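anyone seen this seq b4? input:
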Amino acid sequence: MEVGWILCPVCANKTRLKVREDTILYNFPLFCPKCKQETIITVRQLNISVIKEPDAKTQSR
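predicted toks r here
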């Protein structure tokens, strides 16, 4: 069974999480301790996909 570290999609450093090849994560909030950013990811068979969420728009009058 293959095990790998999840790398931060922003700064490409190791995070504190390891996943196995049979791990499935949907809409997982990944926090990077180095760049202090949180990113929503999906992991399936050690492939990481970044989910882009639209920024909150300010309310105009």
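The first strand starts at residue 3 and ends at 7. The chain is about 0% helix and 50% strand. kinda curious what u guys think
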